[in-house]
Design brief:
The protein is 16% helix and 34% strand. It has two domains: 30 residues, no CATH class; 162 residues, Pnp Oxidase, Chain A, CATH 2.30.110.10. The strands form four sheets. Strands 5-4-8-11-12-7-6 form a seven-stranded antiparallel beta sheet. Strands 3-13-14 form a three-stranded antiparallel beta sheet, with no helix packed on it. It has 222 residues and is of the alpha+beta class. The relative contact order is 0.17.
Length: 222
Amino acid sequence: MAKTRHQENTLEIQIDTLSPADAHKMLIGCIVPRPIAWITTLNPDGSVNVAPFSFFNGVCSSPPTISVSMSYGPGRRDGKKDTLLNIEREGEFVVNVVAEPHEGVMNESSCDFPEGMSECVELGLGTVASSALRTPRLAESPISFECRLFKTVPVGDGPGSAVLVLGTIVRAHVRDELIDDGLHIDVESLRPIGRLAGTSYCYVRDSFSLPRPSYSGRSSTV
């Protein structure tokens, strides 16, 4: 591994020379906090699979699109986890937001359950019928996005690789107390959970506002 210590007290790491495990360790420690997509999909027998993914974010608003990275699963068929196999087969999935007090059961759902087993049944999670999809959403989640598969993008090959899933949101469900008539979300009431590195997570209980500046409004003396 190539490492260079700079005078400004920084360590330059040639990250493309790291092992997949070490590169992963670096990334999950640096890209923080990460939102968690608690994804529901349908198994081949129609039962509901649920699993959390933290390489997750928004992409654009026209069309409303989200991205979820699904890492290579050692020992799995073609290296694909059940969630990815279900999305590819059904062409749909639901992203459920993880919020207090469900951090514990969310973590339990990350367990490597046998293929085809329903985590919802095993963990006693409730489901609610979706409006546009066959796949249900989680009753425990305060916000859910019904998504149709837009595209999958394989990135790399073998351990350390992933498939980037792009989904178009066709319906959003938000609990009444979290949203106003202007579609603003009350984040402090939402109380979402964020992902850090290793076994660490974080709460979102404090927020602050920074209005975006305008270049034309900057003082020439700054």
